[in-house]
Amino acid sequence: MAFVKNVKNNMAGKSFICKVCGYKYNTDKGDVEHNIKLGTAFFELGDDWVCPICHQPKSVFEPLPLEE
Fold first, then answer.
1. CB within 8 A of 45, min separation 6: which ones?
2. What distance in Å separates the CA atoms of residue 57 and residue 32, rounded to the nearest whole number?
3. pLDDT for 10-19, tens place per residue?
4. How far is the C-alpha of 3 from the C-alpha of 50, rounded, in Å?
5. Sign for the pseudo-dihedral over CA of 13, 64, 24, 11
6. In a domain, 58, yes or no
7. What is the rounded radius of gyration, in angstroms, for the C-alpha atoms of the chain?
8. How, if at all, do strands 24-26 and 61-63 pair?
9. CA-CA distance, 26 to 15, in Å (whole number)?
10. Which range of residues forms the domain containing residue 48?
11. What is the rounded distance in angstroms from the CA atom of residue 22 to the CA atom of residue 2?
12. Are the C-beta atoms of residues 18 and 60 closer than 8 Å to each other?
């Protein structure tokens, strides 16, 4: 369980990009336009969450490097 917690903590504050359409999800900004509060980490989005642009599942997202 500690490993999962560490992975989640390391993902906090990161941005993720949809490999299909290029939509970027930023944890710090959330997505107010799509009713996702500021500070909502990517791992906190439900398993049924999909890209708001192309409707692909979370599995097609990948983390962006910290500088982006």
1. 25, 36, 58
2. 19
3. 555 589 999 9
4. 26
5. negative
6. yes
7. 12
8. unpaired
9. 4
10. 2-63
11. 32
12. yes
